[in-house]
Amino acid sequence: MTDDRTPSASSATAPDGFPPSPGGHDPEVLRRRALDALLTARARTTALTDSVDEGELTAQHSPLMSPLVWDLAHIGNQEEQWLLRAVGGREALRPEIDGLYDAFEHPRAARPSLPLLAPAEARTYASDVRGRALDILEAAPLHEGGRPLERAGFAFGMIAQHEQQHDETMLITHQLRSGPVALTAPAPPEPTDAASLPGEVLVPGGPFTMGTSAEPWALDNERPAHRREVAAFHLDTAPVTCGAYRRFITDGGYTDPRWWAPEGWDMVREHGLEAPLFWHRDGGQWLRRRFGVTEPVPDDEPVLHVSWYEADAYARWAGRRLPTEAEWEKAARHDPATGRSLRYPWGDTDPTPEQANLGQRHLRPARAGAYPAGRAPSGAGQLIGDVWEWTSSDFLPYPGFVAFPYREYSEVFFGPGHKVLRGGSFAVDQVACRGTFRNWDLPVRRQIFSGFRTARDA
């Protein structure tokens, strides 16, 4: 999940065409939901930054990522710009730092050289902003006729999602850092019926409703809802596992150009790739590093830290393909019994710990076949949480797309340079993960919590 999506609120637009929130949303219910989302995000930010010392906070652990202290102050700065200034009309607290924390102005590799706020100052600033933001939330009108940023609490939901996206980014940094173990979590639940699950499910052809015009905190690229025709196809019941991917490696997958897109094959040769990121061979055994711990690669856990090129190559080797974004969403949301598209694979209710591996509860994907309560009507499971799933689709706008509240969240990334990922990972909070949520990244990205599943025509 890239963090280069959050420019200054001065670039905000509020087009009349931005879909309204659905009727029947009680402003007070939304206010409580926004408060809970903001507090949950801040608790996670605090845990991620308090778990390491100041040296670790200010260090750049990889040129691919920002120093953790940059993320911390950036979270506060975006909250100040959008909630204090744009929604609350307050005078700027720290206008002189806006440029330092503009993700478009400074590439990640250059951020350590900036005069960033020190850890203590960054914490104080973010806390000061948050106190004022909660005062604004308490008084903000969230009714249907309000301003687009306030309507249904959209701006507050957007900021909670933004902070959680940076929490995921910071968790990636924790995975990349080489220091002592800083984070621990219990193992996810074991699957109960994995051995009896079919390898794939059949998703019948026909139309379905893709995207949303009703989800009040959906971001612009998820909108509007529209009909999409999808031919029948087969889809893996669970994400591709480490054991299955290891067979691709053993069969010479990284040494045979037949399976690779030309740019992917160039990447393999240039960097000498032979396995997913963080894997290494020790004698006859594959090991991996996971948040500072070295452990055997578990065969029945979804493979993680693979690029789009690696996922595509595996699918070709297996005689299959990556699903399109529309196929993925139909398998995850379409209920053939009612013809409706659900908010989540299991229905319209928010995720529970029994349905999906979200929110950094476990620091790893659950084994393939886990979370039976979270399966879709199609029969596919683990579509929400565990691993982001690469699709074959380029990141493009839906018919009728309107940028809101700024072009730089989605519009500037549209095109063939970015591939769509769906479903979220164990590192994603539920506020930033739903059946319509679209993530995107460069096809070379491996440090993200990405996996995949494969499909074939029916």
Keywords:
458 residues, alpha+beta, paralog of FGE (formylglycine-generating enzyme), 4-stranded mixed sheet, 14 strands
CATH class descriptor name of the largest domain: Alpha Beta
Query: What fold name stands as the CATH topology of the largest domain?
Result: paralog of FGE (formylglycine-generating enzyme)
Uncertain segments of ≥5 residues (pLDDT<50)? Answer: 14-24
CATH architecture title of the largest domain: Alpha-Beta Complex
Let me know the largest β-sheet: 4 strands, mixed
Q: What percentage of amino acids are in beta strands?
A: 5-15%
Assign a percent range to the helix content. Answer: 25-40%
H/E element order? HHHHHEEEEHHEEEHHEEEEEEE
Describe the structure.
- The strands form five sheets. A four-stranded mixed sheet has the order 12-11-10-13. Strands 1-4-14 form a three-stranded antiparallel sheet, covered by helices on one side.
- The radius of gyration is 21 Å and the shape is globular.
- The two termini are 32 Å apart.
- It has two domains: 168 residues, Four Helix Bundle (Hemerythrin (Met), subunit A) (Up-down Bundle), CATH 1.20.120; 274 residues, paralog of FGE (formylglycine-generating enzyme).
- The chain has nine helices and 14 strands.
- By secondary structure, the protein is of the alpha+beta class.
- About 2% of the residues have low confidence.
